[in-house]
Amino acid sequence: MEELIKLDAYPIRGLVRRLLQDKTTRKNIMFASDSYTDYGAGYRDNSQMTEGVLLGFDSCDIQPRVYKAAAEQTERTRKRAEVFTPAWIVNQMNNHCDAEWFGHLDVFNKQDEQSWEINTEPILFPEGKDWKQYVDSRRLEITCGEAPYIASRYDAATGEIIPLERRIGILDRKLRIVNENATDEDEWFKWAFRAFQSVYGYEYQGDNLLIARMNLLYTLADYIEAKWHRQATQKELEKFLNVICWNLWQMDGLNDTPPYGIPSDEVVQMSLFDDEEETADDEIVYCKIYDWRKDISKLFKSLKKRGKGMKFDYVIGNPPYQEDNDNNNRQKPVYNLFMEEAFKVSDVVELITPARFLFDAGQTPKAWNKKMLNDKNFTVLLYEQNGASIFPNTEIKGGVAITLRNKNREYGEIGVFTAIPILNYIIKKSINTNE
User: Fold this and answer.
1) CB-CB contact of 428 with 414 (8 Å)
2) pLDDT tens-place string over residues 186-218
3) What is the pLDDT of residues 292-321, one digit of tens each?
4) Using an 8 Å Cβ cutoff, are 257 and 287 in contact?
5) What gap in Å lies between CA 179 and CA 95, rounded to an integer?
6) With contact defined as beta carbons under 8 Å apart, do 171 and 199 qualify?
């Protein structure tokens, strides 16, 4: 299998140190994983990743998870709920987000089971919207791993390279729009730059985050070569890389801090559902992101406050399903917490998670289950009873579901969820009729 990441070759060569920047702490990103502790004391989970460390690794150490030994893949899935999303699911979910924006399905391609047929005609825009608005639309992939929803260089589940014309990531779609509408190289670079400024993602584990950043840099190089038949200059790579390192950042998504950014267990127990007074802020490191339109940095947690301010047009992703647990106890679900946090930063949130809560089952709080089932702004886009058909070699009791919550659209309360799609349709139609 061809290496997907090469630290000593274009476009990564010479930029490893920049790729490791943490814009919040002004240090380097951390490993935040015990996968490398066998190398020694400098490779602990709370150790910073350095250029010297990376260049000392074997070529297979910093590679997408699909390259890692089966035992390590299983361990990371068990401990970190690290289940990577296949490209056909990524495409289907990104298609749903674009359907919300364009007002109709099958904009960039048409899904055909586990493949897709590309729309080769220029993309047309609905009345009142234009291509520049689409490029500027802010989208966030939560717990992004290798950022498959943003940049689809390869299928994260298989490692198979996806040809440029078939790529289906959020950034790929934006760059296609720039390709179709920019009139010259200057305009192309202006709007390609804005496309990079409009895609965001956060991730906890340092190796995943580094690969995600490199995937965006590779994506830039691929599109420049395809469009302008040359390699990107070092100056161009460095300019875009500054945006990449701001927009893909390391964060504990339930605390809005870098890993180990909270110094005491007492503060960790903060409420995830209520606005509360921020105490001990001088002791806690909160993550910063950049608002490129206003040209200012701001705390990510400030986006969750009510009122006007920077929001994401869409949030998408595959959050962790349960908490890290080294014991043999049943692991507590956390996907519901990530869902709640996502609802605070965007009006439109599309996630793939376990489906047990839709049956008012599992370990998620009963009150939360009922709240979601009675939320008129919440709907189920896809239900798959056999989770292994989407995530091979995993067992997800009750199946998995792709759900959408749009604060500005009412779908009708789910009320009761069944595994039979036609019955769901009948139930929803009945609820809508009675309103």
Assistant:
1) yes
2) 999 999 999 999 999 999 999 999 999 999 999
3) 999 999 999 999 987 667 899 999 999 999
4) yes
5) 19
6) yes
